[in-house]
Design goal:
By secondary structure, this protein is an alpha/beta fold. The chain contains four helices and five strands, in the order βαβαβαβαβ. The longest helix is centred in the first third of the chain and has 16 residues.
């Protein structure tokens, strides 16, 4: 007599996944920068909870107009990707990165915040979180 394997039963509450994307580069590495924003925007479009962290030279993209400085052939425009992320996700400039560049909360685009490593760690350690670094 053979028995069928027992399959897990669906739960009534779906698992909530989140994506934390950290980008560490800016205009000096346009492909890596654009890829980070593209992945984050795609996740937002798919309904995933998304948090993007701007560190290093990418901190400049938290300021109005700065995303338009990145141009990359055959890629979505960075201002469009950033706008899509801001509609449903979170964008954060690293506290230390902002301080090193003289960036303050008053300088940032609406919807962008400044926060530190403790918040990053909290977001990446949530159950169901996936972190990517570009």
């Amino acid at each position: 007599m053979t028995t069928e394997p027992t399959l897990p039963q669906p739960t009534t509450v779906p698992s909530q996944r989140s994506l934390v994307v950290k980008t560490t580069s800016g205009l000096e590495r346009p492909e890596a920068t654009n890829q980070a924003f593209t992945v984050a925007a795609a996740a937002v479009a798919a309904g995933v909870e998304v948090s993007v962290w701007l560190t290093g030279e990418s901190a400049w993209f938290g300021l109005p107009g700065r995303a338009s400085e990145l141009e990359l052939e055959h890629a979505a425009a960075l201002p469009d990707l950033l706008a899509g992320i801001l509609e449903a996700g979170t964008v954060t400039v690293c506290t230390q990165c902002a301080a090193r560049r003289g960036i303050t909360e008053a300088d940032l685009m609406p919807g962008v915040r400044i926060a530190g490593a403790a918040v990053f760690v909290e977001e990446t350690l949530r159950p169901g979180a996936q972190a990517l670094v570009y």
